[in-house]
User: Fold this.
Amino acid sequence: MDYCDAINKLPENSGNSLYGKNYLRTWDMSNEEIISVARGACALKAMRESNVSPKIFDSGVAVSMFSKEDSGMKLAYAAGCDLLGLTIIDMDKKLSNSNINENAAMASYMADTLGVCESDFIEKSSRYIKRVADTVEESKNNGVITDKPCVLNLGSDEDSPVQTIADLQYMAAKFGGIENLKGKKIAVTWAYSPNGTRSLAVPQGLVSLVTRFGMNVVLAAPEGMDLMPGTIERAEKNAEASGGTFAKVSSMEEAVTDAEIIVPINWAPFSFLEKRTELHAANLGTYIDLLEHELRENNKAFIDWEVTEEMMEKTKDGKALLLHDLPADVTDITCIRGEMTAQVYGANLSSLLAEAGMRPYVIAAMIILAKSENPRAAFRTIAERATKRYF
Amino acid sequence: MDYCDAINKLPENSGNSLYGKNYLRTWDMSNEEIISVARGACALKAMRESNVSPKIFDSGVAVSMFSKEDSGMKLAYAAGCDLLGLTIIDMDKKLSNSNINENAAMASYMADTLGVCESDFIEKSSRYIKRVADTVEESKNNGVITDKPCVLNLGSDEDSPVQTIADLQYMAAKFGGIENLKGKKIAVTWAYSPNGTRSLAVPQGLVSLVTRFGMNVVLAAPEGMDLMPGTIERAEKNAEASGGTFAKVSSMEEAVTDAEIIVPINWAPFSFLEKRTELHAANLGTYIDLLEHELRENNKAFIDWEVTEEMMEKTKDGKALLLHDLPADVTDITCIRGEMTAQVYGANLSSLLAEAGMRPYVIAAMIILAKSENPRAAFRTIAERATKRYF
Amino acid sequence: MDYCDAINKLPENSGNSLYGKNYLRTWDMSNEEIISVARGACALKAMRESNVSPKIFDSGVAVSMFSKEDSGMKLAYAAGCDLLGLTIIDMDKKLSNSNINENAAMASYMADTLGVCESDFIEKSSRYIKRVADTVEESKNNGVITDKPCVLNLGSDEDSPVQTIADLQYMAAKFGGIENLKGKKIAVTWAYSPNGTRSLAVPQGLVSLVTRFGMNVVLAAPEGMDLMPGTIERAEKNAEASGGTFAKVSSMEEAVTDAEIIVPINWAPFSFLEKRTELHAANLGTYIDLLEHELRENNKAFIDWEVTEEMMEKTKDGKALLLHDLPADVTDITCIRGEMTAQVYGANLSSLLAEAGMRPYVIAAMIILAKSENPRAAFRTIAERATKRYF
Assistant:
């Protein structure tokens, strides 16, 4: 692929509204900004395939603040930052840490990016990430730091912009461009997992994002598996504005029928997450265990929410594109019954891995767009310099 | 700021007495050496602000050996090393590890620096750091290693040279030069913290260092909150030699009155630390808990050793420079009663963060001075090369 | 040392049979391939000593997957990868992790190398490393990844190729060339350790490797301290083919008599490891503890299998080269009775450390040979470029 096309469409100078910005939620970004990130990622991937190094930092630090282990996103962040020449430093800080401002400010001294992943607590998680971003802003305004690091949400209670933009770009690549996603049916469907306590970030983020590009979006979930208040309204509004549609149904089968893209994904209901956040704030660990146990017991009623080969048959021409943010809970591989069967997983594994492989490029593109006043020129310099990544 | 001035005053060739040296305690360094580190840090900060990269290593390893988590200093070390092109490798080794020589030697094979932080055990901690340094020296002498890594004390039972030189340079920047610190009153004062078990490294290191530059130093602490034997004598001798003064008082109020710089800081009394070291050696964990509990109970008598706005009022023009090595224990933010009130903390936060922000530059300067035979030429090469840190 | 000689003997183009390969066991490699790795390591060491940087990657990721802590090999991997310009990312994955394929594939997206250390489970460990390698291969074939990372076995149940090739090259350097090892007597001898549960990788790997270069190899162990089935047969076959000899004896004294190289090393008998693997698979943790306790009790019968000064006296001219993969269990230093006395350890420490110091170069050489189509040209480019590692 020729990456010059993508580069020529990147914003320059005053056109770069992402300069100096953070990435907290896609719904704080314009469509044009989202497309710029996707284009940047696309160009970076093509460069990699041509052994061209996009290292724009001679030195620099990328701090990662994960409240719990997430190997996939952590690796993606590390790989994306390394591509640009940044060194990864882990600063494992929990939400419970009392002095967030101080921690965030300390992390930001010499950091070029702060990647934050904190998804366990409804509202608190978002507020935490926001507070990190605000502290960094203040430090910059007060002259404490010279360069303002870019804050990246790598997964919160609300959204996971790296994952969803990676998915958008991955679909775009499959269907020949973001504009071609218009009118395509995508099913985002709850799926059974014995774990059952996953965050809402990805399903919420997906229906909030893809409805902006004219897709026909169907969200399917069993009764009571609600997302955060406001999500459905946002999706509906987006769909209307973009000329797409949005529907919520309570059957996986209905959702996937004739879909061109399906996204089976387990999540915990909002009411459970809210309750768990309360118990956590009250230091009632034992009751959290009980609450989680009850959720898992209840979920057993929905053990048939599994993507099987029969389910795949119902999709458009029986060959919908299957997306998942990984790790997936796979029947017979990671558990007795999961989100999809081993056959479905096996048949789609290469594609799932390629999908996940978009994340480092999205992260790197986000950083360049936030740190370069003129990203088009920065990418051109990279392309012209054509430094080999290795020899 | 023009950094060429600072560079022109750096030592060259045989004038660089720091070449091949380690940094264990400031009182093993000459005033000129300390000033060189401060100058180097100052030049590096100015370079950063001009987007000039001081990367002098094409590749290389900075090993960090922290006996317990200290995010602030660990990040500072990582950031300072990264600035020079070194990769950070964590080698979390405890003092209890039986074969220190082997560990230290293994760490030093390909390392350019070894940053060691071990502060819990009176005398043992220093001996540990010293043993690491000695092992490295032997490995060099025996031809086991080609390049001798520089050993940095990032915090021991005795001293924290990175912190104290960073503070010295920060004060110097505020008052227009180290020479202008002469005659300024600085109060290093014990302050209450519910934790109460912090090491003596910073208060000891500070009174040992700043007395060498003609300052009028007052150390304040409640009865019995003693530092290590020899500290007071050292401070007195230094003050006399430098034309400054040193006094020990038992009232925070008295100490801060008319002070131009105040440093509220909690520490555990020497007698407690000595006792804890004994119990630890005897594997009496339960009694350590009890000992710490007793200390905390006793400390409650000194809950008023807190920097309040009223206390600040008593300082010179009511606006003394407030220093702290962070994290601070702040009333209403991190605890119910702490070293300072939230108001005092809030009003001084930008400055506290800027103070902490000096540490990576001090570390980087220490490394260049220890690794370059001719640091003045090395800095000049950096300045002339003027590689942009990022574009 | 002039490194050009070594470079001129490296393979080029179609002659590089290691291109695109992994390093799982030395017995999957030809003698010529092993010698190429040793030569590459030798050249890299000489470059380091001349301050020449072999950084061939402008950016890139080296993932490390250690199932348990091994500071020595982990540091060696980090140092070796850093030398080439790769950033180390830790991905601590246990064998118990259910979805190895997904983990391995995720790790390989943007990785240039995957260093895997997993030695606890007989057969399972090797199968695990093999599966990582196979997954990477598949990902490459399916177009999921652009560059295939090189998989390095950093220690399995079967072999530890980095350690053994480092030892081979270290001996070669001591005796003036690999060809000079022919006819030299080497004793690989079991030695007592209070721990007693070490893996078979190093003793198996050593007798499998050094028998290929015409050495007179004696393996000594108490009755019942068996290696994996097939090891003795492999060693015998190798010895015959290379014009060397191989003998198994049950006395340390007999083994070390007149030996020019001795390798005291503790290992657990194969039958114990097999049993432990079974118990582990059955989730019978308590019985594993019991099994290990029994082994340690039984081992006490062999407490005299210790390299003492008297034992050293029996070696050729009383001054055999002592090898150990470190950390060693040393009497009076790390334990009450161990593999060797403190005197023997002390007298040989510099050499032991220098031996361990070969590992980073072996790792770096392995990577260059697997990633460069034409390693001779790559090394020549490095030599001609002559970039200083630091100034």
